[in-house]
Amino acid sequence: MTMRNTHVSVPTRFIDVDGDRFAYRRWGAASSGLPPLFFVQHFRGGMDHWDPLLTDGLAADREVILYNGRGVASSTGIPRNRIEDMADDIAMVIQALGLSQVDLLGFSIGGFQVQEVALRHPKLVRKLILLGTGLRGGDPKMEPGVLEVAPRPIPTAEDFLYLFFGRSAAARQAGLAFWDRRHLRVDQDPPSSAAVARPLKISSICSLAVPRPQGKQAWPFGVAVTCAWIRTRRVPRQSPRRRLKRTVHTCPRSKVKILIPTWRPSNSRPWS
User: Fold this and answer.
1) pLDDT per residue over 7-45, tens digit each?
2) At a CB cut-off of 8 Å and minimum separation 6, what does 61 contact?
């Protein structure tokens, strides 16, 4: 792969895994010596929901891979209803691509999935990058409007502003700029079907509210975790720093670097 491809021009490819076709896009600096950076998107999101500023910026120095989960957008199959199964799918796709190890970047529910990949398939994971996500056992409360807006068949710009951006004028401006960039690609992914929302809402999110056992037996491996923008879901007394301490306690040999610590309850989004 070379940098002749970009977010808007790289072709969509498919790989057959476990009876279904998984869509992915792969480009960037493959000769960097770093493992590919594998992106896992938010609830119902496809490859076109990533910001080209982010993906092309990272692809300047390393290879990146965007991915649609089973039954999501242009991938075929019945959508998974357990985070553990989604994580196993990610591991199978990584192996089918001939990769021995990757860095995983997960946004929102994608963050749940990549944490589970690191737990279940630790040899495949060098580093985790967790964006706008949380830890298993966190407070699952959210604004009631989220469950109405998130499953809409074709989200609008206003839906994205509500779900993913703050309430200030600057946040709105940034969100609308993203929305324009998000539509630069000509051959857009189809929107995810409503079937993606139905099994996930109850089974996956609620199961993640159950804490894992504490102590060294819970995560018996070491992995570097880069945490950018881990929210605490409107629990002011539990700061991101305290949540990260819980991560390190559960992953005793992990290393944590905070890139963008943000705890602003007065201007937070309803759900990450």
Assistant:
1) 999 999 999 999 999 999 999 999 999 999 999 998 888
2) 28, 29, 32, 34
